[in-house]
Amino acid sequence: MGSSNGKKAVMAVTGAVMVLFLVLHMLGNLKIFFGRDSFNDYAHALRTLLEPLAPYRTVLTIVEIVLVASVVLHMWAAISLARRAGKARPVKYVAKKSQASGYTTHIMRFGGLTIALFVVWHLLDLTFGVVNPKGFDAAPADRMVAGFDPSRWWVTLIYVVAVVMVGLHLRHGVWSAFQTLGWVGRTRTRTLRLGAGLLSGVLVVGFLAPPLAITFGVVQ
Amino acid sequence: MNLTLRVWRQSGPSDDGRMVTYQVEDVSPDMSFLEMLDVLNERLILEGDDPIAFDHDCREGICGMCGMVINGVAHGEQRATTTCQLHMRHFEDGATITIEPWRAAPFPVVKDLVVDRSAFDRIIQAGGFVSVPAGSAPDAHSIPVRKEDADDAFDAATCIGCGACVAACPNGSASLFTAAKITHLSLLPQGQPERVSRAKAMVDQMDAEGFGGCTNTGECTAVCPKGIPLDTIAQMNSDYLKANGK
Amino acid sequence: MNHTQGPDIRDTKAPSGPIEERWEKRKFSARLVNPANKRKLHVIVVGTGLAGGSAAATLGELGYNVTSFCYQDSPRRAHSIAAQGGINAAKNYRGDGDSIHRLFYDTVKGGDFRARESNVYRLAQVSVNIIDQAVAQGVPFAREYGGLLDTRSFGGAQVSRTFYARGQTGQQLLLGAYQALERQVAAGTVTMHTRHEMLDLIVSDGRARGVIVRDMVTGEIERHVADAVVLATGGYGNVFFLSTNAKGCNTTAIWRAHERGAYFANPCYTQIHPTCIPVSGEYQSKLTLMSESLRNDGRVWVPLRKNDSRAPGDIPEQERDYYLERIYPAFGNLVPRDIASRAAKNVCDEGRGVGPGGLGVYLDFRDAIGRLGRDAVEKKYGNLFEMYERITGENPYDVPMRIYPAVHYTMGGLWVDYDLQSTIPGLFVIGEANFSDHGANRLGASALMQGLADGYFVLPTTIGDYLADGPYGDVDEEAVAEAEVKVRDKIERLLSVNGTRTPDSFHRELGKLMWDYCGMERTEESLRKALERIPELREEFWRDIKVTGTAEKLNQVLEKAGRVADFFDLAELMCLDALVRTESCGGHFRAESQDSDGEALRDDERFAHVSAWERTPGGPVLHKEPLEYEYVKMTQRSYK
Fold this sequence. Notes:
The structure holds three protein chains of three kinds.
Chain A: H1 4-29, H2 36-48, H3 58-88, H4 108-127, H5 140-147, H6 153-180, H7 188-215
Helix pairs in contact in A: 1-3, 1-6, 1-7, 4-6, 6-7
Chain B: E1 3-9, E2 18-24, H1 33-46, E3 69-70, E4 73-74, E5 96-100, E6 109-111, E7 114-115, H2 118-127, H3 147-157, H4 164-168, H5 175-186, H6 195-208, H7 219-223, H8 231-245
Parallel strand pairs in B: 1-5
Antiparallel strand pairs in B: 1-2, 3-4, 3-5, 6-7
Chain C: E1 4-5, H1 22-29, H2 35-38, E2 42-46, H3 50-62, E3 65-69, E4 87-88, H4 100-110, H5 117-137, E5 151-152, E6 162-163, H6 169-187, E7 190-193, E8 196-204, E9 207-215, E10 221-225, E11 228-231, H7 252-259, E12 264-265, E13 270-276, E14 299-303, E15 320-321, H8 323-327, H9 337-352, E16 361-364, H10 366-372, H11 374-392, E17 401-410, E18 413-414, E19 427-429, H12 447-467, H13 477-497, H14 503-518, H15 524-544, H16 556-580, H17 604-607, E20 609-616, E21 619-626
Parallel strand pairs in C: 1-21, 2-3, 2-11, 3-7, 11-19
Antiparallel strand pairs in C: 4-6, 5-6, 8-9, 9-10, 12-18, 12-20, 13-17, 14-15, 14-16, 16-17, 20-21
């Protein structure tokens, strides 16, 4: 795990865990289109999963632990690889021009940082309700609808920017994970790149649909 | 054509370098980039100045000795071309051209545009070979090799070891170089016995030399004079992870 | 330049008996070295091309203590890497009638009966092992769909015996040798010194015992002693300044060995390749070879009229001279290298050449494109067309290519016996640096074969016989000091002149002189002129050379100046050798010796010998090694 390749593998695996989470998260979010109750039931179900075999919130807590571990490891690997890269080029070029197509590859670190900051805000807003008008005790759907109220358009804007950033991050990141794990064959490169783009697109649309729908009054 | 050159001058490994500006006149569009520098150097010698040191040898794009970052691009902007094969007709009259050496900590500058790439040799020493002493080989036809595998192996084997991949990589990674050799040998039956240990040893050596890690930006393959494909790195990663799984 | 004639020499190591048993016999008679003693025996190998790289690797594998040197920044860059076409081997995988004997026969005949039968037969025998070795190393030769190795016929051979790896056979074989070498470096049997240039040979008690080298980065002059020295430093084609050799190729190592007593054999044998991209201007620094295969479909022509400045497309069919097809109706555009080269020179001398300076002929694919279609032509030659366009900026699909002959390979080199040992005991010479196997002309795809045969298979056996008497003990300290002082003095001298001309300007002038007077066609008059002019130019060099910088740092001007200085001396010997050999043979064409059709005319009565030159204070001494042909009957070539 200490080698550059090991760290890359850590990034790929933890990234994959987070992508999986995002997909489920997005599907859950879309429940809002089936009504507030549907969304609240989903939120409740997350907490009572496997009850009564396991106590309340067992599965969710495990998921949270795995996620936190993934985020920490992902960041650790990213930071140590960035530091390694910095050491590998102590003298910078006077002139440097990119030749690879696609700017997404060059904003990975910046994008990651933006996303990390957003996640903090996002948790404060909708998970802990600290910065949410309805607060922690309100029902999840109420918090969501209140959070993206037209009067709070700037929250929606932050959300849009962050989700687009996630999309760009994943467009390179998903393909990159396959590459890092050595699952890219000669012929599969194109397919994987397309797949990565598609997945990122679906996630962006899926995540943006609820808040935009709320802000523009489609969902009340 | 007349050109303004901004060239990195550094008199020795431990000296500070700086960009120096030169005017070059009457450049023929049919000159190669290195011939243009030859002309400048001839003038510098006659003026009693130290000519610009740069590595070069075959001047036909195969030895991998030449290489400089031209206007921010390793080997210049023309694709799939070494510096020696780049010709002046691709530049505008009156242009200013910035010329820098490969920049990477494992490639310390020896003088001006000359860098020390012995780190590449050490990566090969770590495992970039098939252990087969002279005279011990079976008949060449005893093991058939699928044509597709032989062709893919060849594509990876065309690496000339110039170091442009490292120069272009934002991380200063030598992954494309290392992966090219690992892929070449792991696609052939002759390379199988040492396949996994080779990947581990070469990647570890790459790290030990101080190269950066790969973030799959693709800058390397974009400047590679031989167009070594990026999926060689996937092959390297796969072999490496297998080594660590065992 | 006057010379004297010394006694004939003989190759005393070549075994007698049936030719196919000679190498076996020698392998058995060569003494072995006790494995425990090998580590104590130190061998220096200079040069890391196919010959040097494979030799150092193999000697290391055998357990000798090897030190290897190259002037490049990595052993992988040696100029063997640029060989395009392929490597011959008598595998007969095609069942098309090839055999060791046929490869032997073709090589002796192709060399215009100026090579030793024993050596060539061994080369053909060993050729089959080279392919096995290379494949086992992972060299990605071209294969067919059945998974077996593909071969092609090359350079007019009637059998398909050339193995290839697209147009990069030399590169792939060299990387195989390089990787084997690096494996030994890792194993600790070979110590590698890159960016080191050999500047003298240490001879002590009549034996080659080491080298003086310059660390090109620090400028330090280093002494390295050993029990034997192997030179694998390549050819000297760069004496012509413009050649297909790499810029760094030089004669210094073999020339300094020659100065120390090693005989130099057949220096005048030079191979000129007909299909190179012509010179485009005064600044030209090297010439690039285009594969000979282009002549399979391209038609060579020049305008009928002199100084015709029309664009090629504007010259109507009846005003074009397809001169190869006209003069050689049977072989047409596929005549051998030397004939095609000379014919091109002749039409250009008539003033009918095309392109800058009138030094070029057209190689036209118009008819091939018309006949086969553009796609088919692209499939066959696409990469070559691309390379041509990259260099010239012209698209050969629309405008005919321009080609001109260029110096490509030198068959001459240090004289060696069957064991590849020079006239200095303990000094072995392999690859292009020696003279041994190609006679007066090398066949296409045989250079790679010889380099690897010498390095992987021949030298490792024969050097054992010499080393069996070692270790050779202490080296005479005075001999080492003398060599070192000589090297330092020369550097000092070069730096102290501070004249007005650069090393390149002298090199260009010498090269032009050699090309004009000792190039494709030589006459007594031209050679005498050259022999008069070279000493004058050399004298001017030592009076007016300008070398900037110091000796204590990387100094490319100093490196270049030292090499040019040696080229002067070599050039003189080449011209002398060419003057003395009044016959034409292979790559040596004396205008005075041609038949009524203008073909090279050998004089077997007087010249069926190797000319081995000894350097003495009283001038060059010529020793002849008579050549006898028991297995191949001497005949005159004809391509009409």
